[in-house]
What does this fold into?
Amino acid sequence: MSRSAEEGRNDRKFPVLDGGGIMIIISFWTLNPSLPPSKIGEVAANLMQKGLYPAKHSKTLAWYVCPGGKGVTITEIDGAPADEVAFENWLMWPREYPGIFSSFESLPGVTAEKAVSMVLK
It folds into this structure.
């Protein structure tokens, strides 16, 4: 990479998802299938008892797990940069028990009604 291209890359400002309001984050995850369900339950209970989950400035609206260990969490974030809170909501799990997830993906979401309204503008 040329020096000027490298300098330009380092000067970029990356957006922070703080939106000035509430943001919904939808996380899709798969638990590590080699872990016993009792261990996963223990990790979740520990995080909740310590007051770490959900992360500060977030509220869990839905938290579902399916047979086989796939799951989804819908989180509302308010009062802090959403990117940082979403990252913390993931990070606490592998900190508490490395390898707990075999996959984890978080995406911003809007209601279907809002999406329809947006696309019909």
User: Anything to note?
Assistant: The two ends are 42 Å apart (CA to CA). Confidence is low (pLDDT under 50) at residues 1-12, 14-18. Residues 82-96 form the longest helix (15 residues).
